[in-house]
Amino acid sequence: MRKTLLFALLGFSACGGDDNANDDPFVDTGGALALADCGYSVTTKLGAEPPKLAGATLGTDPTPRLVHLGIVGDPRTSIVAQWRTADEETQATIIRYGVGAGLSPEQLTEQVSGIEFRYQGTGAARYRMHQAHVCGLAPGTTYSYQVGAPDHFSPVYTFHTAPDLAATPDAEITIGFIGDARGDYGTYETLVGLLAQRTPDIVIFSGDAVFVGITQDEWELFLGRAESLYARVPVVTVNGNHENNAINFYSQFALPGDQMNFGFDYGQAHVTIGNDTPADGSIQTSTDGIRADLEASDAARWKLFASHKPMWSASFHGSNLETQTLWGALFDQHHVDLVLAGHEHEIEVTKPLLGGVVQATSDNAPVYITAGGAGAELYDNGTDFWTQYSEKTHSAATIRVTRTQLTFDAFRPDNTAIPATFTKTKP
Q1: Counting beta carbons within 10 angstroms of the beta carbon of residue 284, is it exposed (0 to 12), middle (13 to 18) or buried (19 or more)?
Q2: At what angle do helices 321-333 and 284-296 cross, to 10 degrees?
Q3: 59: which of 89, 225, 254, 305 fits an S-S bond (Cβ 3.0–4.6 Å)?
Q4: SS3 track for 158-219
């Protein structure tokens, strides 16, 4: 059986610059497209076109590339596949999929037609993004899929949906954690490969994927070096100061809500994402969004938070006192278990902190972890009264979560373990 999503286009105004030859005028106002079968809308920001239904146009080379997964809706029942093509003219956007691992293309009997839009980064160049949103999937299930256009499909990849806790309350999930790749995509690729061996269910990237957010060539490196993992595992990205809220960042990742401050459930974990470098320079909007998500998720078994700049750090930039003041009390009040950040190019784990005071246990106090060592030049590590462990090293990490236990483990590019393990249990 084949099916297609039903879409309803929301209103938008038409304005903007001239387009490339043989294409519609480029409209750079952003906009929204409601996906009726998914129950949410896809939005684009100023600098990009409003998303629209995929057409049938094939360009000079429709070969899919930079395939990566994201989430917008419930990860138990939905997935978003994203890619670009070797040309910028192809508009045809299709995902084919089926239940099971290692299926052949002929066994991918379900099909969804996707959406596409263009965005403009540096200079006059415009880049086209393809997205296919698949909803109504079965929880805790492995699927095979491929993306592309007629006669021009990607290899077959696999993904799996998040577990349904009503059916499997003891299911273990693994969150990959990595950040600050800019400057050395070789080290980043090595760490991604080692992370893939640890079979994460989802990856959180804590920002600074690139040096300059509007430089598309860097994004091509970032996504290309990790395609083997991100084509199988959704990646949730945080805006870093080097992304600088660039249209390239928001256009290339499918993220929930306003794409800046949002939350989602995955297994027994609730993850809240915050933007500590908002485009308008005011942290208050981020604070309001974070507070709303933390309040809405108070019933969650485990609560994790991720942003780019660390609230507690003894490294190069030091602690972010603004977010420490505005967000620290929220994390204490809503019993956040683990706070993740990048920005400092080292690894650092704090002792449990409540109201800025070291606690004997983490029972009612968050632990703050900084791990911004995915490739950027290293900073000297330091220590302070809050420091449990710190090291000047490149790194990536996993966070394993079950109903009763959360465990953080980090590793270096040579695959040796970093003695910064943090474990917390609940009855």
Answers
A1: exposed
A2: 20
A3: 89
A4: EEECCCCCCCCCCCCEEEEEECCCCCCHHHHHHHHHHHHHCCCCEEEECCCCCCCCCCHHHH
Residues 84 and 230 in one domain: no
Tell me which of 160, 183, 203 is where a domain ends.
Answer: 160
C-alpha 327/C-alpha 163 separation (Å) is 30
DSSP helix, strand, coil percent of the chain (3-state; round to 5): 15, 35, 50
CATH number of residue 24's parent domain = 2.60.40.380
Residue type (1 letter), 315: S
> pLDDT digits over 254-298, tens only?
999 999 999 999 999 999 999 999 998 889 999 999 999 999 999
Contact status, residue 337 vs residue 424, Cβ threshold 8 Å: yes
Closest among 138, 193, 159, 149 to 69, alpha carbons compared:
159
Task: Kindly report the CATH number assigned to the domain that includes residue 197.
Answer: 3.60.21.10
pTM higher than 0.90: yes
SS3 41: strand
Q: How many CB atoms lie within 10 A of CB 299?
A: 6
